[in-house]
Amino acid sequence: MTVAALAPPRAHGAPLSRATLKASADDFIVDEVLGFGADGGVGHRLVQIEKRGVDTLHAVRLLARHAGVAPRDIGFAGLKDRHAIARQWFTVPAGRTPIDWSSLTDERVRVLFDEGHSRKLRRGALRGNRFHLRLRDVATDADTLAARVAVVAHVGVPNYFGPQRFGRDGDNIRDVLAWIGGGALPRAREARAFVYSAARSMVFNAVLAARVNDGSWNRLLPGERVNLAGRNSWFVADAIDDTLRERLAQYDIHPTGPMPGRGDAPGGEAGALEAALLAPYADVVTALAREGVEASRRALRLVPEGLEVSLDGDVVSMSFALSSGSYATMVVRELFETAAFGEGGEDAGA
Predict the structure, then answer these.
(1) Cα angle: 317, vertex 321, 325; to 5 degrees
(2) Please, how many CA atoms are within 13 Å of residue 9, restricted to the half-sphere of its CB?
(3) Which of 342, 324, 335, 334 is closest to 76 using CA atoms?
(4) Which of 166, 164, 217 is nearest to 1 (CA)?
(5) Band of residue 30 on the pLDDT scale cut at 50, 70, 90
(6) Which of 37, 170, 213, 270 has the greatest number of beta carbons closer than 10 A?
(7) How far apart are alpha carbons 287 and 292 in whole angstroms?
(8) 3-state secondary structure of 153
(9) 245-255 as b/e, with b when 16 or more CB fall inside 10 Å?
(10) Which of 27, 81, 175, 347 is catalytic?
(11) How does pLDDT run across 38-96, given as a tens digit for each residue?
(12) 158 and 217 in contact (C-beta within 8 Å)?
């Protein structure tokens, strides 16, 4: 189970070389892309911060304390790691008097934007994230790098969950296995949610790993649940025709894999394959359904937008955008083996 979750197969061959990711926070910069702006409402303030050296939940507590509100009243769309520079959006309940952000004394957090907004920001309410990365100590040549980048840009990469989804050293997977083996779930709601999330992500990665191995991860099978790119919605493709193949080639749609729980499953060839791949995880799927976790789908394919890569000596610079819920490290690992793999800098609103 842990191999498919933490070390799934690559789609485009062995990494070109080892590389050092996040030698400093400046080497991993992520900007959240909301897809909407402040609406001028009076209930909340839509606030953008730049943070370094602190994680999202620490930033939530810091903003809450400064604004004089409870941390649970702070809205945010995604989690960002502390080992990065992140420009991230939050909502803060509006009070009777404006909040003086200039008196925020923690130098690790700087407020960039503050306007009125009517609604609390919810988890996952992002269009995506834009990344600017530097990888150091690279040992490859420009032609080899360009060839691999061209494949990644054209074909995409498997949309795996990164190891950070499973906790430090895979601790969350151990919690899942203990639960499935008859242990008790954590009482705290948030801790219990981490177990559910790790269980579903583990199974998804296993199914995707198998479809990478058989070459079906980036093509449609009859009966496929098909994701509409950039949306949390899908439709059933009972038969695969030229129109669907063209939409797939244009990155308008993607095949999907299971986020297991209570719900239906694909039919046809896709359903038969998925049922076989899920069989070793039947106890996990049953346990999630018993807990009332609703099944959903996740795209198997991840296509970076606007991928630009350059090589200067032994330093590679990369910039690209990803849809919400996807991991920059999944793009990087199709090029390089990185010492910081597993400290991906983002949970990207998943």
Answers:
(1) 120
(2) 14
(3) 324
(4) 166
(5) very high
(6) 270
(7) 9
(8) helix
(9) eebbeeeebbb
(10) 81
(11) 999 999 999 999 999 999 999 999 999 999 999 999 999 988 988 899 999 999 999 88
(12) yes
| Closest alpha carbon to 166 in 203, 133, 129 | 203
Instruction: Give the tokens for residue 45.
Output: 């303030």
Distance CA 47, CA 26 (A): 22
Q: Residue 325 above 60 pLDDT?
A: yes
Residue 261, classed as helix, strand or coil, is coil
Angle in degrees, CA 65, 69, 75, rounded to 5:
95
| Helix, strand or coil, per DSSP, at residue 71 | helix
Q: Using alpha carbons, select from 32, 257, 58 the residue that is nearest to residue 130.
A: 32
- Catalytic residue at 81? yes
For residue range 97-119, what is the model confidence (pLDDT) as tens digits? 899 999 998 999 999 999 999 99
Tokens linked to 84: 């990065």
Helix or strand or coil: residue 338?
A: strand
Instruction: Please tell me whether residue 29 adopts helix, strand or coil conformation.
Output: strand
Instruction: Kindly report, residue by residue over 240-282, the tens digit of the pLDDT.
Output: 999 999 999 999 999 999 999 998 888 999 999 999 999 999 9
Q: Determine phi and psi for 324, rounding to 5 degrees.
A: -60, 140
Q: Which CATH number fits domain 36-117: 3.30.2350.20, 3.30.70.920, 1.10.150.240, 3.30.360.10?
A: 3.30.2350.20
**Spatial separation of the C-alpha atoms in residues 196 and 163, rounded to whole Å:** 15
* Six-digit token string for 67: 């604004």
Q: Give the SS3 label for residue 336.
A: strand
Instruction: Give the span between the Cα atoms of 332 and 218, in whole angstroms.
Output: 18
Closest CA to 254 of 215, 221, 209: 221
> Cα 294–210–229 angle (5° rounding)?
55
